[in-house]
Input
Amino acid sequence: MDLTIEQSCPGCGADIELHEDDRMVRCPFCEVDNYMLEQGARRFVLPWSLPLAIDESDLFFVPYLRFKGAIYYTTGEKVKYRLVDATRLGIGNDRLPASLRLRPQAMKVKPVVADMTGRFLPQTVKTEIVFSHATRITTLFAKEKEGNIYNRAFIGESISRIYQPYYIHQEQLFDAVDNNPLGEFSSYRIDQRSGLAAKTSWEPRFISTVCPQCADLLQGERDSLALSCNNCETMWVEQGDRFVPLQWSLVKSERRGARYLPFWKISLSSPDKNLETLGAFLRLTNQPVLVRREYDDIPFSFWIPAFKVNPRTLLQLAEKLTVIQSRIPEGTTGRLDNNYPVTLPLKEAVQSIKSVLAGAALYKKRVYPMLPKIDTSPGVTSLVYLPFSGNSHDLTQEHTLITVNAAALKFGRKL
Ligand SMILES: [Zn+2]
Ligand SMILES: [Zn+2]
Output
C-alpha cells in the first residue's frame, strides 16, 4: 500500500496531497510544477494531536524503517521473487511495537521539516539488519537452506523512515497519535534526550521543471522519472540536484493510436565474453533459435522495462525482448506523444540484470554459477520507446509480438 503524503507546495505553501511515487508536484492553487529531488531515504512523521497540557516541544519521535518493493533471488532451480511492504523499528528496544502495522496506510503522513520541535531519535540498528527482520516477516528467506542463492536484488525499491511520535506525562509514556497511555516510561529504557532536532537537510527539495537547453517547460506525469521537452525534443533525468540529458530514441509505429512504452537498453561496460555479442548471448543461454552469423556482429544489450510492473511481468518482458532484440528497428528522436511514463530508474533496471540473465537461461547449470562473477556495471545506456497497440486487456509490440497485460501496467501505478 502506498503512503499518502501531506506536502506543502514549494511555491505558494498550500497543502497538497501526494502519493508516495509522485515526483512532479503540480500545485492546483498556484499551478506551478516542481520536481522533487531524489535524496535517499525520505523522512515522514505520523500525525499527532496533543492534549492541552502537552506542548509540541515535549514530543519525541521513534524511527521505523519502511521497505516497499520486490526482492528477486536466484536459487538452485529458478528465479524467484517476493513483494515486500513492511515497517520495522529502527532502534534496539523490545518493548516498543516491532512494526507500525497498518498505521502508515491508514493516515496521512507528513515530511519532516526543520521547524518541527521535538526530538528525533537516531536509528541505532543497521538498515541491513532491520531489513532482514522485515523480510523474515514475509518468509522471504525461508527456503534459503534448500539451495544456493546465486543472486539477490531489491527492485522497485523504496526505503523511508517513518517516525512515530510519543510524549511523557506524569511518568507515563503516551502514544501521541491516539493519546493512549502505554505504561511506566522508565520501563521502556528509552533515552529520549539523545534525540536530534529536525534538520533542513531532511526536508524534501525541489527544482523547477524548465528545459535546461531551451527554457521551455518540461513535460511529465506525476510519477515520471524522465521529463521530455517537446520543443527541442530532448529528455532529462534528475542527477545531482539538476536535470541532465538522457540518450533516448523512439521506434515509430505506422499504426494510429499506438502507446509508447519505455525500455532501458543497457550494454555492460566490461562484459563477460559470453555477453559481448547477441550471438554469444544466444549460445550461452541456449536459445532454441538459429544463431545467424550476423548476430556475432551485433553488440549485446539487455532490454529492461523502464516502468514498474509486477515481478513476473518485468522478468518476462525483459527476457523475451532481450532474446529477440534483433527484430527491433533503430529508433529516431522526435515528438513524444501517447507515451507511458518512466517509473523504474536505470539503477534498478541494472539491478535486475542478473535475474533477467538467469531467467533467460535454458541451460541453467551453466549460467547460474557464473552469476556472482558477472560485472553488471552499465556501459552505453539509452531509453527506447517501443510502440504497443491493442485493446484494454492486452497490448502487443508490433515488431516483436511481445504482449503486456494492461492490468500489469496498472499494478505499477496504483492510485
Ligand atoms: Zn502552489
Ligand atoms: Zn527544450
